[in-house]
Amino acid sequence: MKNRLxxxxxxxxGLYLISxxxxxxxxxxxxxxxxxxxxxxxxxxxxxxxxxxxxxxFSQTPEFVEKEARxxxxxxKPGETMIILPPFESTTSASEVALPNWKKWLRLFF
Length: 110
Prior knowledge:
Blueprint: H1 2-59, H2 62-71, H3 94-98, H4 101-109
C-alpha cells in the first residue's frame, strides 16, 4: 500500500515536471521566433536608413538642386527658353473605351 502511494506521488510529480518543462520549451520556442522576426525588422530598418542617407547625400548635390529647379520651379539658365506644354487630356471617356467597336460605329453614324 505504501509502495503504491509512493509510486503514485512520484508519477504525479513526474507528470507535473514534464508538463511544466513542455510549456517552458514551447514558450521559449515562441520567444525565439519573436526575436528572429525583430531581427529581420531591424535589418530592414537599417537598410531603409542607409537608403535615406544616400538620398539625403544626393539631394545636397548641385546636380540635384539644378534638376529640381528646372523641373519643379520651371527655372532655367540665363539665355534659355522654357517651353511648358499643357497636360495631355484624352478625348475618349472611360465609358466609350469599354464599348465594343460595333457600338462605337453605330453611335457615330446614328
